[in-house]
């Protein structure tokens, strides 16, 4: 499969549950495995070879006539190319028609593809019940990702009656097949006690299996468990190792977490500059917590040249992104922004140097303002949100 599974539930020490769905590129990457593992031999093989060589125009020219002759594999492959605009223009309506023909002939990957269309509302009306019907057909043919989808939908009662035991059964089966999305979600079941006994050890084991395969979300969760000592003694070095891997895989919250590890010298050498650099990366990528911490670093000159104006800019961005956050979190961000605004006003009118002050308190140093450790994870059941995901800073992932 591609670098991202079709559905991800990111559990974070600095943000709440976030729904992330695969892009067309991720689906396309998954299809490369499909063609190598399922579509091989016979008259379609030259098209498969061209697909694997990323010569999609040639793949189309070979596969289209075979699809028109009723070959289910060719119908699926051409549908995939039409849907993603590979080797020609995008034609989602024709892609869906070909998926249906292939799916009706029992093609599990076409059934899964139709489930994805209905689940995402991609070119069709979003319909979780219809999606579940197609996923279920694919799962009956041992399609591992369809099992993962069904696992989640049963766990949440999404389009079908909630059944945590059935969710557990499907995730078990997918994970045992080596599917890293299944391993990730099985880890979640153990982490949240959904259809499984609550067990940090089991959660760490399954996150670890997916982490080794390169799943960024699993790497992130494993790092949190190791850093917090939830499955035994805390292991900051291993936590930092996996957190950095998660950051390399683009898990946004891992940028901020790496900054905190560097700031506190947990598992990595203590470095204000490295911490500030991580906070800057998180801020520029759009993480509200990273924006807040980067604003503090700039305001205090922690690992960065002190700059109140830029600090105010990032503090304001953090506040703007705080809608729906717990009041305590929003309050501290608003407080920092207002403090900076007052300091800038004073500087402009008096021309004197200023330092951030907490009202009625002594001057605040960088070490007092920065968090002293990564927050412990708060265990929650997966909660559906939009694909963009409204982030909630709660101690929990």
Give, in spatial order, the strands making up the sheet with the most strands.
1-2
**CATH fold call of the domain at 251-375:** Serine Threonine Protein Phosphatase 5, Tetratricopeptide repeat
CA-based shape = elongated
Fraction of residues in helices?
Answer: 55-70%
Q: What string gives the helices and strands in order?
A: EEHHHHHHHHHHHHHHHHHHH
In quaternary terms, these chains amount to: single chain
The stretches of 5 or more residues where confidence is low (pLDDT under 50) are 1-38, 354-397
Q: Report the end-to-end length measured between terminal Cα atoms.
A: 24 Å
Radius of gyration: 24 Å
CATH architecture of the domain at 251-375: Alpha Horseshoe
Indicate the proportion of strand residues: under 5%
**CATH class annotation of the domain at 251-375:** Mainly Alpha
Number of helices: 19
Number of strands: 2
Mean pLDDT, nearest integer? 81
Q: Based on helices, strands and strand pairing, what is the structural class? A: mainly alpha
Q: Main sheet, how many strands, which sense, barrel?
A: 2 strands, antiparallel
What does this 3D model show about the protein?
This protein is mainly α. The chain has a domain at 251-375: Serine Threonine Protein Phosphatase 5, Tetratricopeptide repeat, CATH 1.25.40. Helices cover 62% and strands 2% of the residues. It is built from 19 helices and 2 strands. It has helices at residues 24-37, 45-52, 56-68, 72-84, 92-104, 108-120, 128-140, 144-156, 164-176, 180-192, 200-212, 216-228, 236-248, 252-264, 272-285, 288-300, 308-320, 327-350, 366-369, and strands at 7-10, 18-21. The protein has a two-stranded antiparallel sheet. Helix 4 (72-84) packs antiparallel against helix 5. The two termini are 24 Å apart. The model is unreliable at 1-38 and 354-397 (pLDDT under 50).
